[in-house]
Fold Histidinol dehydrogenase.
Amino acid sequence: METIKYPAKDSWDSLCRRALADKAAEVTATVTDIIAEVEKRGDQALIDYEKRFTGASLSALEVTAEELDHAETAISDELKTAINQAAENIEAFHKAQMMAPVEVETSPGVRCLQRAVPIERVGLYIPGGNSPLFSTVLMLAIPARIAGCREIILCTPPGKDGSVHPAILYAARLAGVKHIFKTGGAQAIAAMSVGTGSVPKVDKIFGPGNRFVMEAKQQVSRSNVAIDMPAGPSEVLVIADDTADAEFVAADFLSQAEHGPDSQSLLLTDSARLADILPEVIDRLMSTLPRQDMMNRSLTHSRVILLHDTDEIMAFSNMYSPEHLIINHRQADALAEKVINAGSVFIGPWSPESAGDYASGTNHTLPTSGYARAYSGVNIDSFMKKITFQRLTPQGIASIGRTVEIMAENEDLMAHKLAMTLRLNAIKK
Ligand SMILES: NC(=O)c1ccc[n+]([C@@H]2O[C@H](COP(=O)([O-])OP(=O)(O)OC[C@H]3O[C@@H](n4cnc5c(N)ncnc54)[C@H](O)[C@@H]3O)[C@@H](O)[C@H]2O)c1
Ligand SMILES: N[C@H](CO)Cc1c[nH]c[nH+]1
Ligand SMILES: [Zn+2]
C-alpha cells in the first residue's frame, strides 16, 4: 500500500485510476469469445465453461425444486433470522421508493401523465467466485418483486460439486425468484442476453461481478438487452481525520480488500498521524483474518493520501467518484452535503460499509470504476420504465394547435402540421 503526502493537483487524475484499467484489452477479447460461443452453442457452451471455470460437471443448468427444499434445512436458524431481518429493511427502504404517477394539465385541455411500469423480464447475476454473495440476491430480487417484474430469473456460478450455496437458494426463494440457473461469469450474462435452451432471454440484466462479468454486461448492452450499470470490483474511499478510530478505518479498508484482488481502498485524510499509523494498524488486523493473500493483492493498489484540508479532500473524492464513501470525520454531516459523485455514502464513525452491504436497507449494487459520476446504484427505478401518456380535448387542440403548426412548418415537416391543421379545422366547424 502506498502513502502519498500532499500530491500535486496534476497527479490526482492518475491517482484516481482503477487497477483494472491496464488489463481491459485482454478481458475484452476473452469476453467477446465467450459471448460468441454461447450464441452459437447455447446450453452446451454454458456446461463446458462451468467445467472449465468452476470444475462443476453439470447435466442440467436449472436448480431443481428438491435443491431449493434442501436449502431450507441446510442453513442455520441464526442465518435465516439474519437474512429475514436484512430482507425486511431492504424491502422497507425500496418500497418507499415507489413513485406515484405524475399528472399535469399543461395547457387547458392538454393532460400529460407519466406512469412507472415494471420491466417484464429481468435477469439477476449473483457473484459466486470468491464468496457466495447471497446478500446480493436480496439487493436485486426484492426491488424486482416490489416493482412488479413478471419474470425474475437468477444466474450464479455453481461450486465444484455442481451445487449452488444454500443461502443463495434460501434468499432467492424468500425474495420470490422462481428460476435459478447454475452458470456464472461472462457466459451467464451472454445466456441471459440471447436466451439458450434452458436460460430465458431477459429485457434487462442486473448485478455486480468481476471484470469478466462487468465487461460482458457492457458488451451485450450494445445489442439487444439493457443493463443496470457497470458494477465491477468493489471499492471504498474513506475520509477520516484525527478523531477517527484507526482500527475502524483499517477494518473498513480490509472489508473491501477481502472482496477480491481487484478491489481498491483509499484513505483521504488531513491527519498526518492517521496517515502514518494506518498501514501498521491494517497489518495488525489483517494478521487476525483469513483471505490474507487476497487482501495483500488488493492492498497493492490501495492508497493513503494526505491532503491539506477538507476542500481538497472533497474535490479529490468527487473526482474519484467512489462506489462507497465512508465519512469518518468530525465534520461528517457538512462533508456529506458536498458529495457530488458516489454510489452510497456512510456518515459518521458508526456507519461502516458492512451495514449497507448487508442490512441497513440501502442497495449494495453500485457503480464502480468512476461510473458513479453518471449512474445511480440499483433502486426501484432500475426495474421500471416511465411511460408517458397524453390526452387532448378539442379545447387542448385550440390551446396548442397553432404552436404545433408553426413549429412543424419551421422544421419543414408539413405532414406534422397537417395532422394538427385537420383537427383545428374540425373543431371550428
Ligand atoms: N459493485 C458492486 O455493487 C459489487 C457488489 C458485490 C460484489 N462486487 C464485486 O463482484 C466481484 C465478484 O467476483 P468473483 O470473481 O468472486 O465472482 P463472479 O461470480 O463475478 O465471477 C466468477 C466467474 O468469473 C469467471 N471467470 C473467472 N476467471 C475467468 C477467466 N480467466 N476468464 C473468463 N472468465 C473467468 C468464471 O465464470 C467464474 O465462475 C468482486 O470483484 C466484488 O468486488 C461488486
Ligand atoms: N461490498 C459489496 C459491493 O457493494 C457488497 C457485498 C456483498 N457482501 C458483502 N459485501
Ligand atoms: Zn462488501
User: Anything to note?
Assistant: DSSP finds 16 helices and 14 strands in the chain.
